[in-house]
Every structure is written in C-alpha cells, then in structure tokens.
Write a structure and sequence with these properties.
single chain, 114 residues
Length: 114
Amino acid sequence: MTAQPTTPSSRPPQTGQRPLVAGATYRLLLTWAFTLFSSVRVLSYLPTLWAICASGDSSQHSLWTWGTWLGSNLTMALWLHEQQGQTWTRAAVVNLVNAAMCAATFTVILVFRV
C-alpha cells in the first residue's frame, strides 16, 4: 500500500485554527472594537487641548513626545496607504486623524511656549 498525498482540503484542521464562522465573528468583533477605540482615542485628545488652552500653560507637555506621536501616526497612515495599493483604508484614515490631533496638540503647546 502506498501513502496517498494529502491536500489542504483532506487534512483535519490543525490545532489553533478557527472554524470559518468563528473566524468571521472574530473579525467582525475586532472591526467594531477597532472602530470604538479609535473613535474614543480621537476624542481623548480634546481634554489635553482644552487644559492647555484654559490654563495657558503648556510647560507640563513635551514637544518631543507629541512630535514623535505625530510622526508615528503620519508615517503609519502613509505606510498603510501604500501597502493597500494607494487606497485610503479605515486604518489609514484613523492614523491620519490621530496625526492631525497630535499636530493640533503640538501646535497648541508651541503657541503657549512662545
């Protein structure tokens, strides 16, 4: 008797693989979690902006930190854009919006330092 070659469809699922329905449910939940937390993250910049403007004091905020976050979010948005065939995906847009919020915070800090 000779061994029959196995094909991907004839092999049982390996440990750790999700069934198709569970994988689809996981991706749906992950998409909604990404949307929720990304929306909350954009809103989370507002208290910092308000606090700096209300106090007129930006000395407790680091331009290096906000500049780094700006660069990180901007380059990630552009990288995602390029990786998806120059298409603006949800993840790329979220990073672009976060970059804009970091730029706004960086600018407000800078204005109150001058």
